[in-house]
Amino acid sequence: MSKKCEDFRDWIADSINGILPAEQKEKLAGHIEGCPGCAEYEAHLRNEDRLSRQLFEGFEQDLERQQQEVIKAVEYLDTSAAEKVISFINGLINKPVVKLSLAAAVIAVVAINCVKLMGWLYALEKFMDCATITMK
């Protein structure tokens, strides 16, 4: 590839992006007509540009959809959201299975603490026995 073709390839990119001055467009068109390599390069760049635009259009459409979903979620979670959560928790707590589970958990905690307390009392009793023997 010649230096001239390298310059024209920069112009091809500018032409596709719509920023190439009219005078240079004419020179570029003349060069592309006589240079199969630059013509092929232009075709590839145009195709790449087309595919990129299609891809980003898809992103933009998907982004708009996601934005709408976020807006709906924010609207749903307005100030009444706390009331909805409290209502859900109250409904959950009032179920018999949940009440039984909570009662079982409380009993388990109390039983574990009683066992720990009994162990502590046993240790205290042994200490007192030792202290009594020592004092006699």
Describe the structure.
- The protein is mostly helical and 136 residues long.
- The protein folds into two domains: 1-77; 80-136.
- Helix content is 90%, strand content 0%.
- The protein has five helices and no strands.
- It has helices at 3-17, 22-34, 36-76, 81-93, 96-135.
- The longest helix is centred in the middle third of the chain and has 41 residues, at 36-76.
- The termini are far apart.
What characteristics describe this protein?
136 residues; mainly alpha; 2 domains; 5 helices; 90% helix
Topology:
Elements: H1 3-17, H2 22-34, H3 36-76, H4 81-93, H5 96-135
Question: What proportion of the residues form beta strands (DSSP E)?
Answer: under 5%
Q: What would the principal axes of the Cα set say about the shape?
A: elongated
**Number of distinct helices:** 5
Radius of gyration: 40 Å
Terminus-to-terminus distance: 112 Å
Q: Report the uncertain regions.
A: none
Round the mean pLDDT to the nearest integer and report it: 81
The ordered string of helix (H) and strand (E) elements is HHHHH
How many strand elements? 0
How helical, in percent, are the residues?
A: over 70%
Number of domains: 2
Largest sheet: none
Instruction: Briefly note the structural class of the backbone.
Output: mainly alpha
